[in-house]
Amino acid sequence: MDFKSILEKIYRGASPEKNDLTSLLSAKTGEETESLFSKAYEIKKRHIGQKAHFRGLIEIGNICEKDCRYCGIRKSNKRVERFFMDEEEIVSEALFAYRNQYGSVVLQSGERQDDYFTEFIERAVRRIKEISSGELGVTLCLGEQSEETYRRWFAAGAHRYLLRIETSNPEIYRNLHPPDHDFEARKSCLHLLKKLGYQLGTGVMIGLPGQSLEDLADDIFFFRDCDCDMIGMGPFIPHKDTPMCADAPLSPESSLELALKMIAVTRLVLRDVNIASTTALQALSPTGREMGLLAGANIIMPNLTDTKYRASYQLYDGKPCLDENSSMCKNCLQRRIESIGESIGFGEWGDSPHFKKGKQ
Ligand code: 5AD
Ligand code: FES
To answer: Where are the alpha helices (H) located in the chain, listed in sequence order?
Structure first.
């Protein structure tokens, strides 16, 4: 079958074979990618609407016990100045999100599993719920934790959890991480989170060394099979102070294009999930996040982190908005989203239709 027929078949809702997905992911620049993005956008319009939701991102600390070989805040990187916000700082950023009708916040940090951290997060989540009369949704993006910890944080009021699988190929996963990082442990955390009642988010990096289009197709099947409600994916962008600083197999342009194709194909297959247009897209092009929305994504994560900490929270090189503050990012993103004819779901949690269906 030619590209057009495969696209039409998947658009109409046929259950995809792996080679359908690899064909779509190999769309040629120009007419083929344009038609792929526009079909994905039509599916988004039908299932989600021409609407983006905000999740205010608070990068609460960069102290990390892990040593992922691609990540700028890995434990072995001695060139990062480490920070950890205090509770009042987190609460005041959440208050900004609440007053500006963001609907929800994401607390993200380097991975820590100590008791102090567990209790600190529990308190911070409770405070955020209190100051917003329970209205602000809370997503956590705090890595692998024990069942007990996930349970406590859920009881405190967090209702979504983002934990990327990074790649569904165990061998690539092994190459990305030191030997004590365990692919199976990551997968069991995803199961636990789902079982405990969190809305589950996962995702991958795109354009990794050794990653083929078959791997990316498998990533999409992985998203489907773990029944996740949201997906956050972005291009792999080397960080200069990491072992993978020179390992990007693709040029920034090709990497951006492949990431956009991955968003579009994921939208075509999964239809009613939330898909983030990630900041990493904007690191590769000033309009990368708008492109993500036009390829089928529907979630934007404006940065709420105090400007003074932003330079210390660089997971990859070229992260945008390091000198901006929360208001600047809000106005900037609002303008960007409205410039492509979309509205923002202010004051709404923006749960995915997929999650709402699952509850019925
Ligand atoms: N390039 C792109 N994404 C990265 N992340 C970490 N380091 C990089 C990098 N160099 C992503 C990972 C992680 C998320 C918080 O940030 O996918 O799960
Ligand atoms: Fe931060 Fe544009 S998103 S200034």
So the answer is: 3-11, 18-25, 31-47, 87-99, 115-131, 147-156, 170-176, 183-196, 213-225, 252-270, 279-284, 288-294, 307-310, 326-339, 353-359
